[in-house]
Structures are given as structure tokens and as C-alpha cells.
Design a protein that fits this description.
single chain, mainly alpha, 1 helix, about 80% helix, rod-shaped
Length: about 40
């Protein structure tokens, strides 16, 4: 599973993927909370 982390290119791709995934997760949570609050109020 981690053999692609042995190369610099693999590490860069891994970090990039994690950052993109984290940003998407944050955006989804913000949108979800906004929709929830709008429905309640």
C-alpha cells in the first residue's frame, strides 16, 4: 500500500490528494451546516 510513498513524486501526489480531499470535506461540511441552519431558521 505504501510502496508508492518511497518516491518523492509519490509523496507529493499523496500530500496533494490529502489536501484536496481535506478542502472538499471542509467545503461539504460548511455547505451542509448552512443548509441545516437555513431549514431550521
Amino acid at each position: 500500500m505504501f510502496e508508492y510513498l518511497s518516491t518523492t513524486q509519490g509523496i507529493n501526489r499523496f500530500v496533494f490528494t490529502v489536501l484536496i480531499g481535506w478542502c472538499l470535506l471542509e467545503a461539504v461540511l460548511v455547505i451542509y451546516n448552512g443548509v441545516k441552519n437555513r431549514k431550521r431558521g
